[in-house]
UniProtKB/TrEMBL annotation:
Protein name (Swiss-Prot/TrEMBL): TIGR00299 family protein
Keyword RNA-binding carried by entry: no
Keyword check for Transcription: no
Residue ranges of the TM segments: 22-40
Keywords: Membrane, Nickel, Transmembrane, Transmembrane helix
Name of a matching Pfam family: Ni_insertion
Length: 147
C-alpha cells in the first residue's frame, strides 16, 4: 500500500478539446494518473471534474500546471491509499508480428493480461484483421506462455 494524493478541480468554462493538452502536460510532470468526469455545476452548467493522482512531492507543481493550463479558480486535494498490482511488460509473437502485453499480478497470481493497443492497431492495419482479433490472440498467446 502506498499513500498518494488526489487533486480535483471543477472546470466549467473551458473548451473540452483542450483537456487532451492538459492531460499531456500533467503526465509529463510524472503524475501517476489523470482522468476527467462530466458533471453538472450550479445553475445546471455542464462541466468536467479534472482528477490527478500523484506523489506528495508533485502537489505544488501539479497545482501550478492546473491553474496555468485550465480555467479553474479552485483546487482541492487529499491523501488516498492505493494498492496496485505488480505489472510487467512482455511480448508475444503472432504470425511474425510482435505484440506487447501487460501482465498484472496480485499476491503472485496473474489477474489480468492486456494487449498493447498501439501494437494491435498496427497489426490490424497491416493485416486487415480487426483490432479485437489481435487483442484476443495476443491475450491467448500470453496466457499460454506466461500464465
Amino acid at each position: 500500500m502506498e499513500e498518494l494524493w488526489q487533486i480535483e478541480a471543477n472546470i466549467d468554462d473551458m473548451n473540452p478539446q483542450d483537456m487532451e493538452y492538459v492531460f499531456h502536460r500533467l503526465f509529463a510532470l510524472g503524475v501517476n494518473d489523470v482522468w476527467a468526469m462530466p458533471m453538472m455545476m450550479k445553475k445546471c452548467r455542464m462541466a468536467m471534474m479534472l482528477c490527478v493522482l500523484c506523489r506528495q512531492s508533485l502537489i505544488e507543481t501539479v497545482l501550478d500546471s492546473i491553474f496555468k493550463e485550465t480555467s479553474t479558480i479552485g483546487v482541492r486535494y487529499f491523501p488516498v491509499q492505493r494498492v496496485a498490482c505488480e505489472r510487467s511488460i512482455r511480448t508475444v509473437c503472432i504470425d511474425n508480428i510482435i505484440i506487447h502485453v501487460k501482465i498484472s499480478s496480485y499476491q503472485g497470481e496473474i489477474v489480468n493480461i492486456s494487449a498493447e493497443y498501439d501494437d494491435c492497431r498496427e497489426a490490424a492495419v497491416h493485416t486487415g484483421k480487426s483490432i479485437e482479433e489481435w487483442r484476443r490472440r495476443a491475450r491467448e498467446e500470453a496466457y499460454k506462455q506466461y500464465g
